[in-house]
Design a protein that fits this description.
The chain has 11 helices and 12 strands. With 449 residues, the chain is an alpha+beta fold. The strands form 3 sheets. The protein has a 5-stranded antiparallel beta sheet with strand order 2-1-5-4-3. Strands 7-9-10-12-11 form a 5-stranded mixed beta sheet, covered by helices on one side. The protein binds adenosine-5'-diphosphate (ADP).
Amino acid sequence: MHKRFRVQVTLRVAAIAGLAGAAAYLVWGHALYLPAVLVVGLAVAAAVSLVRYTEKVTRDLTRFLESVQYSDFTRRFTSDGRGPFFEDLRDAFEEVTSEFRRLRAEREREVRYLEQVVQHLGVALIAYQDDGEVGLMNTAARRLLRTGPVRHVEALERVSDDLAETLRTLESGEQAMVRVEEEDRTLQLAVRVRRFRLQGEPHALASLQDLRNELEEKEMEAWQELTSVLTHEIMNSVAPISSLASTAQRRLDAESDGTPLTADQAADVREAVGAIEQRSEGLINFVDAYRSFTDIPSPEFELLEVEDVFDNVTRLLRAQSENQALSLTTSIDPPDLTLTADPDLIDQVLLNLALNALQAIEEVPDAQPGHIEFRAHVDPRSRPVIQVEDNGPGIPDDVQEKIFVPFFTTKEEGSGIGLSLSRQIMRLHGGSISVHSSSGDGTVFTLRF
Ligand code: ADP
C-alpha cells in the first residue's frame, strides 16, 4: 500500500515536472505560447489531482484513527472504486476492525461470565471505588441487606451507618463485626475488605456474612425442639403428681380436724400416694435416660469383623421379634470388611436401628412381609459404611427433621432416646448417621465411620 502511494504521488509529481518542462521548452524553444498555456493547464490539473489524492488519503486515515479512538468499529469503509490504493487501505482497515470487534466480543463474554458467577455466589459481595461509587453488588448482598441496586456506599447508611463507615475505612485484609438492628431482625455481619488497584485506580471488594443467621438459627431451632420435648415429658409427669398430692392433702386436712378418715378416704390417700410414687419413678427413669446419653463412656476401639457385628445383632433381633415371617438379610462387600469401633457401643447403635425397623414393620402388619437388611461396604474414600434398611411405612419429611432430637418420639411407649444416642455414639467414633426415607417407601439409615 505504501509503495502504491509512492507510485501514485511520484507519477503525479513526474507529470507536473514533465508538463512544466514541456511548457518551458514550448515558450523558449519555439515561442509557441498557446500550446504552452494548454500544457500549463494540464500541469495545474495534475497538481490539483495530487492535492486531492493526498487529502483523500489523509481523510481516510483520520477516519480510521477516529474509529480507533472512539472504538467505533461499526463504521464500514468504502473504496467507491477509487482504485487499488483505497481498496488496500479498506482491506487493512476491515482486518484491523474485525480483529478489534472479535477482541471486544471476547472481553464482553468474559465479563458477563464472571458477572454470572459473582451473582450466583451465596456470599454477599460489594465492589466499590475509593470515592464510594458501587460498581457491583450481587444478589446475595441485596437480599441480605434488603436493598435494591445501590450506586454509592453512602446509600447503605439507610441500612446501617456503621456498615457504610466500615466499608469506607476498613483496612485491606482486615475483618470487622458490624451489628445491624432492624425492627424485625438483628444481623451480626462479619465484613472483610480487600483493596486493590485497577489501572491505577483504587478499588475495594467487600464480603459480608451474617454469622448470627448461620449459627444461631440452627442452634435456636435445636434448643426449641429440645425444650418443647423436655417440657412435654416433665409436665406429663409433674402435673398428675401435683394434682394427686393436693387430693391426698385435702383428705389428710379433713382428718386433722379430729374426724378420723373413713376407709374410703384412707384408700383414696393410699391410691394417690401410690400413683405419686409411680409417676416419680417415671420421672427418675426419664432423667436416667437423659443421663444415659450425656454420660456415654469413651469408646474403647477394637478392630471388628463386620460379619461378627451383624451376626450378633441379628441374633438379638430374632430373640426380640415375635414375627416369625420377618426376613433378615445381610450383605457385606468385601466379605472380610473390618472396622475400628467400640463393640458394645456399635451393637447398641445397630440394635437401636434394628428395633426401630422392627417396630416400623410391625406398624403395618397386613402389608407385605417385613424385611430388614443390613448392608456394609466401603465408600470411595475407603471408609466403611453400614446401612440398615426396612420396608416399613417410612418417615414423613416433617418428622424426619426431628428424629435425632433427644426425647422426640412418635410412639406411645417411646423414649425418643435411641436415635439421638446413636448420633452421639457415631460422633464419638468420628463418624455420622443419616437417614433417607420417604413416606410409604421404607427407610434407610446410614452409618459412616
Ligand atoms: P423411639 O424409638 O423411642 O421413638 P428414636 O430416637 O429411636 O426413639 O426414634 C425417634 C422417632 O423416629 C421414632 O419415634 C419414629 O417416629 C422415627 N423412626 C425411627 N426409625 C424409624 C423407622 N425405621 N421407620 C419409621 N420411623 C422411624
